């Protein structure tokens, strides 16, 4: 059975085609820097244990456009892996916001699509794009089952003291205003890898997902118990274009004194803030380059970014009453050794001591980057949301 997984993030579109139950990747790829200069598609095909890669540079304005080009690559030309769209049995879609409705993989019906649509305003960078990808896939793979796997699902175990906001109960009971949490598929996948690697019974893990969107989760014995994103994927850490935590008084001030509308506020906090707002680019690679050239705004952006992560690690050490492992993952977490070093330095009191040489030589698979005597293990684990989604889709289709 071929399962195609589509993972649209805020700045990228990732895809993987798996042969199940063998769990073998047939092809994978990535459309990066969507909507900004320098966008490209990287397409990898796996044959007999060998990987062949091609890179296509073209300006890709939207996720819909990127997906259409990817689907053409799958069935046409030299790197085609399927003869026709009928070769795909199921398409697994990452959907970011599922509200309180979905705790596991879900067959997509018109009703499910309506629920996803209702949550557009809470995840404006994600749910509209996820919805668009579902529609493109429905039109392309008419015979395939379409399945949604929600970022929010893994966080359904968060206890009430952590998921409730300190506002009157009515807003929770009548309007479902609470912490939902995001990147759940990634936090689940990397924490399960870490638990296997730690090989002990009770585990306390802090998972740090640093992509374009960033979040951090406290995981006790495999269950999410707190996370930095909340009602929508805007709170907590500083991100590519999102502010992370900000005092709501700033919003009142901008409305009252500068006449900001709802749309302007949403644009400011979702699209013009974070690394972009402070440092001048949403892409960490650009920020690094600018900082290396002495750009003060980029240097400050890096400081704010690392400082916020460090504060949350301290908070979650308290939530968990100790830490066995801190896991770094996603685009920045996996690739930016200088960011990992900036986050870990000064956390010796909590028992984290980084092995700076090991940190610099990470090469794409699970690696311990702490010193042998570090009380807390520091790990880099490549996330694989696509694999986790394929796995959940397969279970949904085959387990009665
Ligand atoms: N080699 C690298 N060094 C530093 N940052 C990197 C590197 N490669 C990717 N990144 C950063 O990772 C981020 C994108 O992460 P990713 O997990 O792909 O995002 P998303 O899924 O949220 O769209 C970007 O800010 C990008 O600059
Ligand atoms: C939820 C979220 O922020 O996702 P991404 O990091 O893929 O944008
Ligand atoms: Mg992502």
TrEMBL record:
Substrate binds at residue 94. Its main location: cytoplasm. Mg(2+). Can also accept Mn(2+). Pathway: Metabolic intermediate biosynthesis; acetyl-CoA biosynthesis; acetyl-CoA from acetate: step 1/2. It holds the Pfam family Acetate_kinase. Its cofactor is Mg(2+); Mn(2+). One of its GO terms (molecular function) is magnesium ion binding. InterPro entries: Ac/propionate_kinase, Aliphatic_acid_kin_short-chain, Aliphatic_acid_kinase_CS, ATPase_NBD. GO terms for biological process: acetate metabolic process; acetyl-CoA biosynthetic process. The active site is at 151 (proton donor/acceptor). It catalyses: acetate + ATP = acetyl phosphate + ADP. Mg(2+) binds at residues 7, 385. Its EC number is 2.7.2.1. Keywords: ATP-binding, Cytoplasm, Kinase, Magnesium, Metal-binding, Nucleotide-binding, Transferase. ATP binds at residues 14, 209-213, 283-285, 331-335. The record marks 183, 242 as: Transition state stabilizer. It is found in: Cytoplasm. The keyword Cytoplasm applies. One of its GO terms (cellular component) is cytoplasm. PANTHER family: ACETATE KINASE, ACETATE KINASE-RELATED. Belongs to the acetokinase family. Catalyzes the formation of acetyl phosphate from acetate and ATP. Can also catalyze the reverse reaction. HAMAP family: Acetate_kinase. Homodimer. This is Acetate kinase. It comes from Pedobacter kyungheensis.
């Amino acid at each position: 059975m071929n399962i195609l997984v589509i993972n649209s993030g805020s700045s990228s579109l990732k895809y993987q085609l798996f042969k199940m139950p063998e769990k073998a990747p047939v092809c994978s790829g990535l459309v990066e820097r969507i909507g900004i200069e320098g966008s490209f598609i990287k397409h990898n095909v796996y044959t007999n244990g060998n990987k062949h890669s091609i890179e296509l540079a073209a300006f890709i304005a939207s996720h819909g456009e990127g997906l259409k080009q990817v689907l053409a690559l799958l069935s046409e030309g030299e790197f085609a892996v399927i003869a026709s769209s009928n070769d795909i049995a199921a398409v697994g879609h990452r959907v970011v916001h599922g509200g309180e409705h979905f705790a596991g993989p879900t067959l997509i019906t018109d009703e499910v699509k309506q629920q996803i649509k209702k949550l557009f305003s809470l995840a404006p960078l994600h749910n509209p794009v996820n919805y668009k990808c579902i529609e493109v896939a429905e039109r392309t793979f008419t015979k395939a089952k379409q399945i949604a796997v929600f970022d929010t699902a893994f966080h359904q175990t968060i206890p009430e003291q952590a998921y409730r906001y300190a506002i009157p109960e009515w807003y929770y009971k009548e309007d479902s205003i609470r912490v939902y949490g995001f990147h759940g598929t990634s936090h689940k996948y990397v924490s399960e890898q870490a638990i296997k690697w730690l090989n002990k019974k009770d585990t306390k893990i802090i998972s740090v997902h640093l992509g374009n969107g960033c979040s951090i989760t406290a995981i006790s014995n495999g269950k999410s118990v707190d996370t930095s994103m909340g009602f929508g994927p805007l709170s907590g850490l500083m991100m590519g274009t999102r502010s992370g935590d900000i005092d709501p008084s700033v919003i009142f001030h901008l409305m009252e004194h500068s006449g900001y509308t709802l749309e302007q506020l949403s644009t400011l906090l979702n699209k013009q803030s974070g690394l972009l707002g402070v440092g001048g680019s949403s892409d960490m690679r650009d920020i690094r380059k600018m900082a290396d050239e002495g750009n003060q705004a980029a240097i400050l952006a890096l400081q704010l970014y690392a400082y916020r992560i460090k504060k949350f690690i301290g908070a979650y050490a308290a939530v968990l009453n100790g830490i066995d492992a801190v896991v770094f993952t996603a685009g920045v977490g996996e690739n930016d050794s200088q960011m990992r070093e900036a986050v870990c330095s000064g956390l010796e009191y909590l028992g984290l001591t980084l092995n700076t040489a090991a940190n610099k030589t990470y090469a794409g698979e699970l690696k311990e980057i702490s010193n042998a005597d570090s009380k807390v293990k520091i790990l880099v684990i490549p996330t694989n949301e696509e694999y986790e989604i394929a796995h959940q889709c397969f279970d949904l289709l085959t387990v009665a």
